[in-house]
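Work package 3, deliverable 3.1, input record:
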Amino acid sequence: MQDKPLRADALRNRRKILENARDLITRFGADVPTDAIAEAAGVAAGTLYRHFPDKAALIDAVLQGAVEELGQFTEDAGARVESGRAQAMAEFRALAARYVEHASRDRAVRAAADRLSEEYRFTGDRLRRVTDAGRNLLARAQADGDMHPDITIEDVFLLVHTAPTDAAPAVRDRWLALMLAGFTAGNRPGHAADTPEDGISAPRRP
Amino acid sequence: MQDKPLRADALRNRRKILENARDLITRFGADVPTDAIAEAAGVAAGTLYRHFPDKAALIDAVLQGAVEELGQFTEDAGARVESGRAQAMAEFRALAARYVEHASRDRAVRAAADRLSEEYRFTGDRLRRVTDAGRNLLARAQADGDMHPDITIEDVFLLVHTAPTDAAPAVRDRWLALMLAGFTAGNRPGHAADTPEDGISAPRRP
Amino acid sequence: MQDKPLRADALRNRRKILENARDLITRFGADVPTDAIAEAAGVAAGTLYRHFPDKAALIDAVLQGAVEELGQFTEDAGARVESGRAQAMAEFRALAARYVEHASRDRAVRAAADRLSEEYRFTGDRLRRVTDAGRNLLARAQADGDMHPDITIEDVFLLVHTAPTDAAPAVRDRWLALMLAGFTAGNRPGHAADTPEDGISAPRRP
Amino acid sequence: MQDKPLRADALRNRRKILENARDLITRFGADVPTDAIAEAAGVAAGTLYRHFPDKAALIDAVLQGAVEELGQFTEDAGARVESGRAQAMAEFRALAARYVEHASRDRAVRAAADRLSEEYRFTGDRLRRVTDAGRNLLARAQADGDMHPDITIEDVFLLVHTAPTDAAPAVRDRWLALMLAGFTAGNRPGHAADTPEDGISAPRRP
DNA sequence: TATGAATGAGTATTCATTCAT
DNA sequence: GATGAATGAATACTCATTCAT
């Protein structure tokens, strides 16, 4: 059904290239030379270019892989909530922590996201999976009254996008605690129980 | 005390280099070739290297300038509060918005901050001025009961460091609203009035 | 006598490769990648190299095909003259125009001729057919008294070799008119009626 | 008055680069690597690119130099005719021979001309000098009654463009003899003395 | 001190050809 | 015999930095 079955050795090479690209980009950022990636993968430069038309495509593939992992995590969380094994808001908090931790181990995600931010920003079909799963979890937490009702999936991406992934774990935890306060029902104006005195109202964004 | 008295024309050159470096980095990021900076400044490449040992040093100087501007803003805000012309928390909010706006117009700040993040992190003598002024404002807002009592200057730097400076204005505003919720007294556990049930306590960071 | 009987499908592949090589070289010049030729022919790169030892050999084969077409045209012209249906000089002129037009539509001929000009120059067994047919036509035109008597088949190849195939049709026609003046009896010294004063005599070439 | 006086050593390097570019292009065609040119000139790759923005510009400069030489030759010929020391048609023939010889020693001219033929074709300010001088000589020869009256400067360029510069000297001479027949008054229809029977009339080209 | 010319290692990408599957 | 994946040398161009003028 797929375009090509791809020979066993070719598939192995493709995987080695992707793994090493991810590793190197994670450690050194998206500026790593393609030659370095090829060498790390144990293939010649030409082989890398057989599998990916250019460097951008390779980075793109690395990013897509990372995004798909996030989608998987999010779907898993949703499943736990749906089956009654966990509470939506708790899963959301855990997920956020996991996102941040994940991204901080992986400069690839961050670097690629930065470089491709124009293209991806907070939309794109590639994000469909994580977007859908995220919206689902969000709705659950809001139904429980734990999540502030004006929070949208874009807010979640904003959280992910700005996380201090290059900081120490304690700093990342602190940042999350501060940031999540804005997500929690009762902690911010705009909710029924909130006092609107400080002038912050529900956001109007395109 | 200083290394050299520096001749008048040399000083003029140094200033021209710095100004143009700031301008170009602001517009195009830290990747601008040194040659472009030298040319914009109307000097030869060698002259640039006479004033700054290498490109990193030049970017460093540009960053320092930006940081000093922030210090000035912060001191101004403190002065207004001290003189009773303004409320501390309102000034803090305005200051945060001003920084985010400032940095989003000025790729120099952002780019240099990214590149030199290891060196500076949230400390360093270069930050003394903005640090002191910030602590002062913070204390005032906490004394007023408007700022959550566990907030430290490191939290403020964290806010600054992670602001989505490359995003659209509406997105930046939204991010600030979410983030500042965590800074506001009464919006987060750890405060006298807060219920500590969700287990987030005052941070312990090195 | 031939190297191998060659299986039916192998022969088919060889033909497809040649056809597509001709087509692509015609359109894009001899710089087309071998991969592109293989793909166009619907075979893998290795198959191309099974049929032709290297790219030069493939181009060579393409050229040979083109040269054989020219031989065919020339033989046809000769036949028309021999059967009294046409005059030799008129056929010669038409043939020259036809070649120039042909080569200008077909970058294969031109490109291959350029690249292989050292090898072929104006000799070679591969040219036997067109050479013989050309000499025949030439002799007829000279016998008619229309073609200058010192013209040889090498002169004809020289004409072909230097035709401005990349020029606009009007320019090509003009060039032919100028060049053919030198081929026409009575238009140039060396002929019985010519005055030998300007010192140009019949050529002596290796 | 000129853009820059250019330091002595820089000028020396520029000349070495141009000379070696000319030499290498002459011998191997326009495909010579820039690195090879730089090495031959005894400079680093970067130096070549300081003097010429890209490879095309270098080739362009080489061509311009060659064209200027041709312009010089042509003006000299015109001067000899004007001073009565020589006959226009004889100078024209000698010049044509010189052109062809020149170009055959210099694949640079040919290769660059081919590559840049779209841009230059038979016009362009760079050709102004040789064009003007050529027209002058042409007019003289036509006034003398030696040059066919319908010949234009474009015909001359056509001659130059199609000369078999890669052939042996005897072949080039032969080609010239054939081609020049079309330029000579009395050798081709269209002249007062010609019989227009073969239907070739004065050309109409844009 | 200033100039700006020279350096040269570094980067992404292509393509003829080989060879394991 | 066919496939197509892998090779790896080659190429144009950049840019931080040095140093002769």
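DSSP finds ten helices and no strands in chain B.
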